[in-house]
Design a protein that fits this description.
Blueprint: H1 3-10, E1 17-22, E2 28-36, E3 45-52, H2 61-75, E4 80-87, H3 91-99, E5 103-114, E6 118-128
Parallel strand pairs: 3-4
Antiparallel strand pairs: 1-2, 2-3, 4-6, 5-6
Length: 131
């Protein structure tokens, strides 16, 4: 996708938010976006998406962005957070979200076309947020 297409897809509009994680020298490490999972009657549940640069992987950036998203959702008054699409083969992400209190509540078979694994399942992950 082009930069303009990616920008319009990634940048959230209120009530959502998009943030970036940078090193002390300003190097981009990753980004997260969060907001309501669904509009209207589903808007009490938050969702979030994450990207971490290849150079920053396994350095705690994803965990920090995940904790930020949970804190943000709690502060905004969301009752829960749900991830709609965590690739089953992304075992690092699945384990990270489980460590942060998420459970896999369903798997959509062959819903993601992985460049290295072919069609794989997508986990739907959920956790309640404390008041």
């Amino acid at each position: 996708m082009s930069l303009d297409e990616a920008r319009s897809w990634w940048l959230e509009t209120p009530p959502g938010v998009t943030v970036v994680a940078c090193s002390d020298d300003g190097t981009l490490l990753g980004s997260a976006k969060a907001g309501p999972n669904r509009p209207g009657r589903g808007s009490h549940v938050a969702t979030a998406s994450f990207m971490v640069t290849a150079a920053a992987r396994r350095r705690g950036v994803g965990r920090a962005l995940g904790k930020w998203a949970l804190d943000w959702a709690r502060e905004q008054g969301y009752a829960a957070m749900q991830f709609n699409a965590v690739a089953a083969t992304n075992t690092v992400a699945v384990a990270r979200w489980q460590e942060l209190g998420f459970t896999v509540i369903g798997i959509v078979p062959e819903a993601f076309d992985s460049a290295s694994h072919g069609r794989v399942g997508l986990h739907v992950m959920h956790r309640h947020l404390e008041a």
